[in-house]
Amino acid sequence: MASLVPLAPSVAVRAQAEPPKASEGVSGGLNLSAVRAQLAKGDAAAASGNLAEARKSYDLARDSSRRLLTFYRDLSGAFRGLDARIPREMDQNALESLEVLAQANLRLAAVFRRQNQPEVAVPLLVEVVKSMTPSREEGRKAYQSLVEIGFATIPYTAVSGPGS
Predict the structure, then answer these.
(1) Which pTM value belongs to this model?
(2) pLDDT digits (tens, 9 = 90+) for 91-100
(3) In the 3-class helix/strand/coil scheme, how is 16-82 assigned residue by residue?
(4) Using an 8 Å Cβ cutoff, are 138 and 132 in contact?
(5) Contact 121, 147 (CB under 8 A)
(6) Neighbour count for residue 126 (Cβ, 10 Å)
């Protein structure tokens, strides 16, 4: 008969501990906190004039927020009609991911504008207007940038109202 050797205390403690959650503020994880950290890293690089590093950080933030958006939407759809709480939470997370994606697009477009590449900024700005609409701050900023670079000529003056 094999002798039973008790697990070392550290192994037993690790087995009982909760696994880390993807939604917690882990900087390397797939979560909104990590994406926001990537945006902040890009902001620091842009402020110091390192536009190549800023572009890389903003691109990573865009990719991660797009993936999050897709995952949250997929989970929302999978639980629709089964448990209203889960789609409600996933829809809220998807909206936050969309907002972060819009912020990443705006910042990346600003980098391209600083590099005298407005033609590369245009698709990013149009994406923001399309996804956020001009009724939201991000959409208004994107449209204003399109006017500033000459892609659009008619300025948009939003009427302040509820939700703006």
Answers:
(1) 0.78
(2) 999 999 999 9
(3) HCCCCCCCCCCCCCCCHHHHHHHHHHHHHHHHCCCHHHHHHHHHHHHHHHHHHHHHHHHHHHHHCCC
(4) yes
(5) no
(6) 17
Residue 34 CB partners (closer than 8 Å, separation 6+): 25, 26, 27, 28, 64
Angle at 77 between CA 74 and CA 78, to 5 degrees: 85
User: Tokens 């550290």 sit at which residue?
Assistant: 10
Backbone φ and ψ for 29, nearest 5 degrees, come out as -85, 180
Of 116, 105, 114, the C-alpha closest to 141 is 105
CA atoms of 35 and 56, how far apart (whole Å): 13
Kindly report, residue by residue over 52-77, the tens digit of the pLDDT: 999 999 999 999 999 999 999 999 99
Question: How many residues are given for the chain?
Answer: 164
Provide the token pair at 13. 């403690």
Tokens describing residue 60? 């990573």
* Residue 25 or residue 132, greater confidence: 132
- Cβ-contact 127, 105 below 8 angstroms: yes
Q: Which amino acid is at 25?
A: G
